[in-house]
Amino acid sequence: LEPPFSHTPNHSLSYWCVLFQGVGGGWIEAQNSRGEVGLVPEDYIELPGGGGNVGHVAAPVAAHAPDLSFFDAFAAPASNGKDPWSVWNQDTTGGSSNNWAAQPEGTITGTITGKSAAPDPWGSTAQSHPQAYQGPGAEDDEWDDEWDDVKSNSESGDGGAIQRGGATGSSMKISLNKFPGFSKSGPELFLLCKQPPKGKEKITIYMGEVGPVWSYPEAQLDCVVADPKKGTKMYGLKSYIEYHVIPNTTNRPVNHRYKHFDWLYERLLDKFGSAIPIPSLPDKQVTGRFEEEFIKMRMERLQGWMTRMCRHPVVSNSDVFQLFLTYKDEKDWKTGKRKAEKDEDVGVMIFSSIEPEAPDLDPIEVEQKCDQFSRFTKAMDDGVKDLLTVGQEHWKRCTGPLPKEYQRIGKAFQNLSSVFTSSGYQGEATLTDAMTSAGKTYEEIAQMVAEQPRKDLHFLMENNNEYKGLLGCFPDTIGVHKAAIEKVKEGDRLVAASKITPQDKVTMAKRVSTMSYALQAEMNHFHSNRIYDYNRVMQLYLEEQVKFYETIAEKLKQAHSQFTTM
Amino acid sequence: LEPPFSHTPNHSLSYWCVLFQGVGGGWIEAQNSRGEVGLVPEDYIELPGGGGNVGHVAAPVAAHAPDLSFFDAFAAPASNGKDPWSVWNQDTTGGSSNNWAAQPEGTITGTITGKSAAPDPWGSTAQSHPQAYQGPGAEDDEWDDEWDDVKSNSESGDGGAIQRGGATGSSMKISLNKFPGFSKSGPELFLLCKQPPKGKEKITIYMGEVGPVWSYPEAQLDCVVADPKKGTKMYGLKSYIEYHVIPNTTNRPVNHRYKHFDWLYERLLDKFGSAIPIPSLPDKQVTGRFEEEFIKMRMERLQGWMTRMCRHPVVSNSDVFQLFLTYKDEKDWKTGKRKAEKDEDVGVMIFSSIEPEAPDLDPIEVEQKCDQFSRFTKAMDDGVKDLLTVGQEHWKRCTGPLPKEYQRIGKAFQNLSSVFTSSGYQGEATLTDAMTSAGKTYEEIAQMVAEQPRKDLHFLMENNNEYKGLLGCFPDTIGVHKAAIEKVKEGDRLVAASKITPQDKVTMAKRVSTMSYALQAEMNHFHSNRIYDYNRVMQLYLEEQVKFYETIAEKLKQAHSQFTTM
Fold this sequence. Notes:
- The structure is a homodimer.
- Chain A is mainly alpha-helical.
- Helices cover 48% and strands 11% of the residues of chain A.
- Chain A has a domain at 11-120 and 132-172.
- The first copy, chain A, contains 15 helices and 11 strands.
- In chain A, strand 4 (164-165) and strand 5 form a beta hairpin.
- Chain A is elongated and about 105 Å long.
- The N and C termini of chain A lie far apart (95 Å).
- At the A-B interface, helix 10, helix 11, helix 12 and helix 15 of A face helix 10, helix 11, helix 12 and helix 15 of B.
- Chains A, B: Pfam families: BAR_3_WASP_bdg, PX.
């Protein structure tokens, strides 16, 4: 057996044995080296240059890779441990004991990492949050398990994702794309490509006040995700939720289901993932008693995700994103969809579209910048997770023991008041009315305390949760750069070993400079958004906190006014 | 061996054997039926009519009791269980499962109960309160263990209390008085006394708007307990704290030590305890690292006790209380002290001084009133204890986990702020300054939360603690009345058995009416004080709570103003 996915670091997929070819719909049943059985798309196992012939023994798919062993050399450092940060960040991380160690082994690509390493949106104890992710293995969402339905299969082999429980019950997700040689840990594809593809969209980087910046549009794209509606298909056997997505450019709503968002996500990830961290979508969830709550929560998070994508000048300007927001009819959508799925300008090749309007950078400066961003994102990731943990505990207290205590105080006052009422003493009423009222006030405060987190802490948590997801993509985005830097560093050795030409070495240095500009532009985009987001969410949080404490003070003032010392 | 104290319900003191007569200073070493050894005053063990002869075998001290077996008959119902309320309140209490079951067996007299049954001033979990009672068995307070010192002994046989660790290590306290026949459960002493003692002070009861009321003075007596000063004696071997007590009548401070307050307490208990619940003093405590805190706390509680005594028209008008507040010099004090200790108008005989200016009550009405007060005080005792428990838990949360959480939130904000500072991005300062400031605000809030209970909950707790102590005296005060009612009910049987004459029976009915007026006047006094106290303490509590929440809102408003979404 050959190792067809040896260029991907996902060990569980290293060896595949085709078990059954006749599954239909473009799928093949296969078994990996761990004995796990699953479906893989037919075209994924095509031999290089093959035209649809599927062999019983799967061959390497890394057909377009200039040098397979070369790829392995690049892939190695990125898959050598459980902590993707530790590869280039050993000076700042605490080794395997840090949070990143919790990521699944071998999941290196940014988005797979993002999706599978964050089963808990608010840290490991998030289950108690009423809106928190309801546990892993919830792939069978009745609205979303349609990747294998008739309609989807007829559209295949699309570049979707396989989501299947294997024989061991574990699920796996293979990120596919039409450029099979692509690997995020293989930037040499761009560094060494013979000439940039022609007729590309150009992505310009300017020198702004803060350094390299993307080219921002004059009017910022925005959209609203709203009006979730339940639909059914297959004679009511399957139901799903469809959302309106209304861009501010057309003001015309288009309909999308979660699986469309997921499709868009996959496209964006394939296309921009090497240069731009594409945060994963809100997790799929099991449905249950909290359908309303769940739909609201998912919509809120899809809105957050779309807002972030709209705000990104490169992403929002892309054909696939525009298609998603402004398709005219079903036919338009399907045509655009097919076109997007055939886009070969994905993976590290995105850098070939990028044109920095600035002089080439020195490799030392490139490395410094890369290290700086790496340190920063790692530190921020820690800080964000810390805040999430603290917020999580505060949420628990505010919705658990604290309101219970205020309620008991309220009850104790009312209880004493009713004892006093039984005294038979004249002129008791003023005190007992006041004490009952004070007691009720504390019961109201209990209620307020319990409800407050949804009004303020919720948004602080959601914001930080979003940033946790975004930061979780950086190890991979930065990893591409780090790998490129290492490649350039090896330039002399590679020339000496005749792996590359001296001209290749010069080209690589120039191209790594372009990559660095892209990283800097992205970091500056990140920083500016971060500053905006944290200002906004802190304002909102503190505003609601002020209201909360002022309301309590006002209520207590009223309770106070009823007591009288004659 | 004769049972010298059989008329008292304290089993542990039933039998005494004089061990050693030559202790000196008016004391005799004796051993009780449990083998516990302690000192008892010489004159306490005098035989009836004896002139200082002490026998090796102690004889009954109940010399003045008209009929010992008769006394036993009365004593029985009050000592038949662990729950003093259950005797006359079985309809409202839940049997032995209620709080009162926790009282030490056999401690029946109100003040002994008050002192020994309340080792925890704020309920059973009060230890964690920084100012809470620091555990039982703390009798050896270096400032207060002077009942047996040279000076005290030279003043003996005073009517102080013996506080000694017995052979078993347990301590006991004997309430002594100069009227050895006195027992709170023996109201027949008053009901059947031949003629009221002459030349008494009269205590008048009027019919007020709310029913029977004591005669209140025009100007209410008040005093300030202040300026605790450390004094030493015995060449510095012993130190003690002396307080200034300044009555509003003279504005002249007199000096008193804790033991003087304790002496006053004993006098008031002996003299008024059958008619008026005399709350016990703040407990003796071990001293330790918190001397300052302890002195402040004791002073505050002595102040509370004195204020309550000053407010009582009967207590505050008494010679002994006036002596305590206004003695001119040491000689005056000693003279007055000796006189007070020789006062024979104590125990149930206080009722003979009481003159209700209203028609005699029907025994049925007497019983109804008694039951009503009993139910009320029991219910209030439950309510107060409930509030103390709740308050105790709230105190713990406010000084423990809650501020820690706010501190962690504050740290998380500041931590994230310092990460942001490291971004190297321009224009970061406004956000990071604002986030640092918000973080510090939450640390300030943490501090405020931790300190707040001392500003508001403390007074609510102290007030309820005071009421808990006061309510703990009611079972005994009401018990005297209940016993008297039972006595009157037995009137016919006693006449038939020739235990009393028919005239005695008539007299008893009249006198039990007087007792009922006293109880009603006292309950009305209690109610009026209770309404004042609870209004006042709730006002104070809510006022401080309002300030607290307003301050937090104000701080957060300031923190909020530093954020800006440009």
